[in-house]
Design brief:
Blueprint lengths: L4 H17 L5 E2 L14 H5 L5 E2 L3 H11 L1 E4 L19 E4 L12 H7 L9 H11 L4 E6 L7 H8 L4 H14 L4 E6 L2 H7 L5 E4 L8 H9 L2 E3 L4 H8 L8 E4 L1 E3 L2 E2 L9 E3 L3
C-alpha cells in the first residue's frame, strides 16, 4: 500500500470486502515505510481501527511475493470488478491496486461507514466549533480546491490541470441552480488563489488543518449537506461519508487529463465539465 489518506481508505474498503469472502486477509505496509509523501499510514490514528497490517523489509517482501504468491494486478484485469471474484487454485494471492470505486464495496457500505468513523478524541476545539456550525446550516456546501502537489510538473499534465477555474465555475453554477443561498465552506491548500478567482455571497475558508491534522478537513467536508469535490480521493471520501440522503455531490467529468471520470464517480453524483 502507498498513497495518501484517500487512497488508503479505498484499499482498506477493498480489504473489508475481502474479509467477507476469505478468512486470512491482511494489508501489506512494506512499501508504505518508504513512502515519504503525505502523512504516512493514517488509518489506525484517524479512525481508531485495529492493527491488521503486515510489514516486511522491502527486499524480503519482494522475494516472498515472487516465490510464494500469485499476484493479481487490478490495472491488468479486463473486468476490474472481477478482482475479488477471480478464482485461483494457488492458496496465496497478492492483490495490487487502488480499487478506486464504490462498486467494490457498495454491498457492504454500512460496514465501511462504521469502520470510517472519525476519532473524535483527536478533533481540535476550533474544528468542533466549526462542525457544530456546519451541522446547523441546511445549505452548507463543501468546496475542495486542491493545488499544492498537483501543481508540480510530475502531476500537472496528468491530474493537476483537470480541475481549474473553469471546472469550479461550472460546479458552483450547478450547485446554485439546485440550492437556494448556499453557504460555501472552502477547503484548500491555496486559499489566496481561491479568493482571487471566485466570489461568494456566503463563505467560510478553512486552511488551518495541516500535517497530522489534515484529515479533519475530510471530517468537516462530510458534515456538510452537499459537496463539490476535486479530482482527489480525499474529497471523494469527504463527499461519500456525507450521510445526507438528499445530498448533491458535484464532481468533474474527467478524473485524468486524458480520460473522463471512470468508475470512481458514483451514479448518483452530478458530473460537470472541466472546461
Amino acid at each position: 500500500m502507498t498513497g495518501g489518506l484517500g487512497n488508503q481508505m479505498f484499499i482498506y474498503a477493498f480489504y473489508l470486502q475481502m474479509k467477507k469472502r476469505f478468512s486470512d486477509v491482511y494489508i501489506d505496509l512494506s512499501d508504505m515505510v518508504h513512502y515519504r509523501i503525505h502523512h504516512g499510514y493514517e488509518m489506525n490514528r484517524v479512525f481508531n481501527l485495529p492493527h491488521i497490517e503486515k510489514c516486511y523489509p522491502q527486499k524480503l517482501k519482494k522475494v516472498i511475493e515472487f516465490l510464494f504468491f500469485k499476484t493479481i494486478l487490478e490495472r491488468k484485469l479486463k473486468d476490474p470488478f472481477s478482482a475479488y471474484k477471480k478464482s485461483s487454485i494457488w492458496p496465496l494471492v497478492y492483490y495490487k491496486g487502488f480499487y478506486q470505486t464504490e462498486k467494490y464495496f457498495k454491498d457492504i457500505d454500512d460496514d465501511i461507514r462504521s469502520a470510517f468513523t472519525f476519532n473524535t478524541e483527536l478533533i481540535t476545539d476550533k474544528n468542533r466549533m466549526l462542525e457544530s456550525e456546519i451541522l446547523s446550516n441546511s445549505n452548507a456546501v463543501s468546496l475542495h480546491v486542491r493545488r499544492g502537489d498537483y501543481l508540480q510538473p510530475k502531476h500537472w499534465n496528468a491530474i493537476g490541470c483537470v480541475c481549474r477555474k473553469e471546472y469550479y465555475n461550472n460546479a458552483i453554477a450547478e450547485i446554485r441552480k439546485r440550492i437556494n443561498s448556499p453557504h460555501f465552506y472552502v477547503f484548500s491548500d491555496d486559499i489566496d488563489w481561491v479568493k482571487e478567482n471566485f466570489e461568494f455571497e456566503k463563505v467560510t475558508y478553512i486552511d488551518w488543518n495541516t500535517g497530522n491534522d489534515s484529515w479533519q478537513d475530510m471530517m468537516l467536508m462530510s458534515r456538510c449537506k452537499h459537496n463539490i469535490i476535486a479530482n482527489s480521493t480525499f474529497s471523494w471520501w469527504g463527499a461519500w461519508l456525507n450521510p445526507n440522503k438528499s445530498k448533491i455531490v458535484i464532481a468533474p467529468n474527467r478524473w485524468f487529463a486524458n480520460s473522463e471520470a471512470p468508475n470512481i464517480i458514483p451514479d448518483s453524483w452530478v458530473k460537470v465539465k472541466t472546461n
